């Protein structure tokens, strides 16, 4: 098992796990080793409130998405860069965000 400075290297999702993630979270798009989704809100303040919630989740998990903010639209892109793949860290983050 490979290790990072934070512990064991996350294991890439299997093809079956990737399909399950796609099926369970149809609003998200898997492209290569990234999963992304664009959220639309009523205004900028609501979009920033959402980003702040994502930031709290990301800090707690030490797993940070790429975030693009365009007035009332927020696009999140997740990938586990240390593994060069989608991992369980991405799956858990998607599940948490979808649970907001």
Folded structure, characterized:
By secondary structure, the chain is α+β, with helices and mostly antiparallel strands. It has one domain: Transcriptional coactivator/pterin dehydratase (Gyrase A, domain 2, 2-Layer Sandwich). Helices cover 39% and strands 25% of the residues. The chain contains three helices and six strands; from the N terminus they run ββαββαββα. The strands form two sheets. Strands 3-4-6-5 form a four-stranded antiparallel sheet, covered by helices on one side. Helix 2 (44-61) runs antiparallel to helix 3 (88-98). The model has no long low-confidence stretch (mean pLDDT 94).
Write the layout of secondary structure elements.
Blueprint: E1 3-4, E2 7-8, H1 15-24, E3 29-31, E4 34-40, H2 44-61, E5 66-70, E6 73-78, H3 88-98
Helix pairs in contact: 2-3
The separation of the N and C termini measures 34 Å
Q: For the record, what CATH class applies?
A: Alpha Beta
Annotated CATH topology: Gyrase A, domain 2
Averaged pLDDT:
94
The number of helical segments is 3
In the CATH hierarchy, the architecture is 2-Layer Sandwich
Radius of gyration, in Å, reads 14 Å
Strand content: 25-35%
Biggest pleated-sheet summary: 4 strands, antiparallel
Helix content: 25-40%
Write the H/E string, N to C.
Answer: EEHEEHEEH
Short description:
By secondary structure, this protein is of the alpha+beta class. The protein contains three helices and six strands.
Provide the descriptors you would attach to this structure in a database record.
four-stranded antiparallel beta sheet, Gyrase A, domain 2, 39% helix, 100 residues
């Amino acid at each position: 098992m490979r290790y990072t400075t934070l512990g064991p290297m996350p294991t890439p999702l299997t093809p079956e796990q990737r399909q399950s993630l796609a099926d369970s979270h149809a609003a998200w798009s898997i492209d290569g080793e990234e999963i992304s989704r664009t959220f639309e809100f009523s205004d900028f303040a609501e979009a920033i409130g959402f980003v702040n919630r994502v930031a709290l989740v990301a800090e707690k998990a030490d797993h940070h998405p790429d975030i693009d903010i365009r007035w009332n639209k927020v696009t999140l892109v997740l990938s586990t860069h240390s593994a060069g793949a989608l991992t369980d860290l991405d799956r858990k983050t998607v599940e948490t965000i979808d649970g907001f």
